[in-house]
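fyi for ur records
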Amino acid sequence: MLRIGIVGLPNVGKSTLFNALTSSQIPAENYPFCTVDPNVGIVPMPDPRLAQIGDIIKPKRTVPATVEFVDIAGLVKGASQGEGLGNQFLGHIREVDAIAHVVRCFENPDVIHVEHTIDPVRDHDIITTELALADLATVEKRIERQRKAAKSLDKDAIAEVALLERTVDALQRGAGAREAIEGPFDAELLRQLGLLTAKPVLYAANVDEETLAAGKSPHVDALMKAAAAHHEQAEVVLFSAQLEAELSALDEHDRAEFLDAAGISESGLDRLIHAGYHLLGLATYFTAGEQEVRAWTFHRGDTAPVCAGIIHSDFERGFIRAETISTTDFVRLGGWKPARDQGQVRSEGKEYVVQDGDVMLFRFNV
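which gave:
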């Protein structure tokens, strides 16, 4: 499951975004909602292909892929030093896959900004600095221990100290820990440390409806430039907290009509989820049977056995082959039987690289 942590200053639209998310929330009774622990919302990955497959198979149940959003209280200057319980909240997002940074990009005198003026670049820099300072404290604690181990000529410790020293340098220069990564060893170690600035970042620009329709504004342009300067692959997604709040109160049919009337193809929440998938190189394949039609998330480039293992480790261990067809052909032909009759279902082996939208039936023997 993709996990995205939501960060930002107070009063930038984080709570509205999260409340809109939870309006379509899959029940998750084990997740507490309170003032100190983070709010956690599990929401379905929007994908019309799942419904198209379900309309043909008519299974007993349809299960979408899911995305988990972790929302923490608004950060302020000094969060890394404990201001506003900052460290306590920052700890909650160390295990997420990516960070969604909500930034206010609209003018409204009735909505007070914690810094008193609207300046997306300043707001970006405040949060980025606090995340970097929190990481710096983590790295400095670790590096002292590993320097002692490196004195005994431990090769792993020596390599780690070199990485941590590069990380300290990057953080002190105002760059993220990701700037210190030179290979898979580095990426995995920083992931284990839970460094916030080593995580992919996408920006959610909270805009008014006029800007949302236009797709740009001076505030948005400024944020995009600031984001690009810090993260080469950062994505900026526009959303309107006010519009999302209105959408959250509507049923599926009315939402579609509302978006169409507003001249918008999909909600900001859907765009945010899709941006997270793109940022992390994720894709979706499907399994389809009478009992269940289900969407599964995988990393682009994964082979058929790896994708089979997402369902169960036995599927990967005893993998024989995968019967495969694209969603487009599956829907066009009307399901497994007519697709097989017309020779459109392929038999793929262990080297097959799974494609986004594949409908798959795994054959295995343990």
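The mean pLDDT is 86. thats all i got for now
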